[in-house]
Design a protein that fits this description.
The protein folds into two domains: 277 residues, Beta Polymerase, domain 2; 61 residues, Magnesium transport protein CorA, transmembrane region (Methane Monooxygenase Hydroxylase, Chain G, domain 1, Up-down Bundle). Helices cover 47% and strands 16% of the residues. The strands form three sheets. Strands 1, 2, 3, 4, 5, 6, 7 and 8 form an eight-stranded mixed sheet that branches. It is a multi-pass membrane protein.
Length: 467
């Protein structure tokens, strides 16, 4: 006996922090101050998991990769000064642990608002510009698998209460809803050439392709040694995983189209309705990504940096808490810290500040390719939505046509047998005298009359085009 096939559609979200935590009550100060004792106590009791850390240092000539770092090893490694050759440092953390988050935030001066956004999941797609770093929260979607052994389907997708049991489809109508995993990736681009990324899921499918490029000295990623270009590579890798989802939906619709033409049924319509709802949700999730990439391409944020990279490993508070590090706008449109302006005006021998873009021109150039990918993906989703609606209309029309054909057959049968039904009714009456009943050939004549009437009726209906 064949196993019963079911539909399933799942969205996976991993919540790192409780949304009802004490620092998010109405009226509380925004952001997460890592120096607050109450905040430290709260998260120290809740975010106690183990992380899988990675630290990559590289320039155009050489690189150094340390993987599989646990909490203590990761905190110890990033607290040390960066190697002299390190033009770019990439710190990647899988998992959530407060000791790691606190150490990274203290060393690199992450803003309290960006820390809050990285902890509270699911988080909307966004980009924030802070005094010493750029924060990006991006949605990671990927096609996980096709599942066919679950009894129920959430027809209206995640967070809806309505669930409808779908009966097993006919053998010609087997289909399964796509299993899509969705989560957030938090990225911090610092002005000292450091990129910090946090994920709450196994992210090898994102990291490994980039590492393979970093180990090859001939790639642009290595030759440029640009942290913003590394950020572009990661965003591009995330967006590239959107396309297989739309391709999988297209493959499903091609099979469904053949099924609708052959044997449409209510189960196909239910499946199309659920898929159409999923496509609407997918489009709502991808539209902010398109806006984010456009904003990154047009972003113009000039930062003041010294010719030499500041020493890594120094413990510092976010710039918003340090008055001497506040940013001021220079007459030429560049920015510099207030402390640097004061030193310059006093005639000190400090090194001059060099104004540069937080996102390099080459990064913005290649972001246009990423924008092409997300635009293509959204075009596919819009096409798939129309395809799903057309297939739904086609299924309804085919079912209506089949119903009309069945009613037509019944109507023709009724019309054909109406004359002989009349004869049977006449000779089935209880009158005392019916001359035909006493005829010797009365019974054969009755059947002859019935056959003639049926034949004449069929010929008439045929000539009128009823069948």
């Amino acid at each position: 006996m064949r196993a019963k096939n079911k539909f399933i559609h799942r969205h996976h979200h991993h919540h790192a922090a409780d949304e009802t935590s004490v620092h998010r009550v109405p009226g509380a100060a925004p952001g997460i101050d890592i120096e607050s004792e109450s905040i430290d106590k709260y998260f120290s009791e809740r975010l106690v998991g183990q992380v899988n850390g990675m630290v990559v240092d590289f320039n155009a000539e050489t690189y150094q990769i340390r993987q599989g770092l646990a909490n203590a090893d990761l905190c110890d490694w990033i607290s040390k000064p960066r190697p002299d050759f390190s033009a770019v440092r990439w710190i990647h953390v899988e998992g959530m642990a407060w000791d790691v988050i606190k150490t990274v935030s203290q060393i690199h001066g992450l803003h309290p608002l960006s820390i809050e956004d990285a902890l509270h999941l699911p988080q909307r797609v966004k980009v924030d510009n802070f005094s010493n770093h750029l924060f990006i929260s991006l949605l990671v979607c990927r096609l996980a698998s096709l599942t066919s052994d679950v009894a129920e389907i959430d027809v209206a997708a995640r967070h809806r209460l309505l669930k409808q049991r779908l009966h097993p489809m006919a053998e010609s109508g087997e289909c399964t809803l796509l299993d899509i995993e969705a989560d957030n990736c938090s990225m911090f681009l610092l002005d000292d050439g450091t990129l910090i990324t946090f994920t709450h899921f196994a992210s090898g499918f994102l990291v490994e392709p980039i590492l393979s490029r970093l180990t090859n000295a001939t790639t642009m990623l290595r030759s440029l040694s640009d942290a913003s270009f590394l950020l572009n590579a990661l965003i591009d890798s995330i967006v590239d995983h959107y396309l297989p989802i739309t391709e999988a939906y297209a493959d499903q619709f091609e099979r469904l189209e053949a099924i609708v033409f052959e044997k449409p049924n209510i189960h196909i319509i239910r499946y199309l309705h659920a898929t159409h709802a999923d496509l609407i949700e997918l489009k709502q999730k991808l539209l902010p990504v398109q806006t984010l990439i456009r904003n990154l391409r047009t972003m113009s944020h000039r930062v003041a940096s010294s010719p030499t990279r500041p020493a890594s490993g120094s413990m510092q508070r976010p710039a918003s808490f340090i008055g001497a590090s506040s940013t001021t706008v220079l007459p030429d449109g560049s920015t510099a810290s207030a402390a640097a302006s004061k030193e310059t005006s006093s005639g000190s021998n400090a090194a001059p500040k060099v104004a540069q873009e937080r996102l390099s021109p080459i990064c913005k150039t290649y972001l246009s390719d990423v924008q092409d990918h997300i635009d293509t993906c959204l075009d596919h989703v819009s096409t798939l939505q129309g395809w799903a609606q057309n297939l739904t209309d086609l299924a309804f029309n085919c079912i209506s046509y089949t119903t009309n054909e069945n009613m037509k057959v019944l109507t023709i049968a009724s019309v054909v047998f109406l004359p002989i039904t009349f004869l049977a009714g006449v000779y089935g009456t209880n009158f005392t005298f019916l001359p035909e009943l006493s005829w010797t050939f009365g019974y054969p004549l009755f059947w002859t009359a019935c056959i003639v009437l049926v034949t004449v009726t069929l010929v008439y209906l045929k000539r009128r085009g009823f069948y």
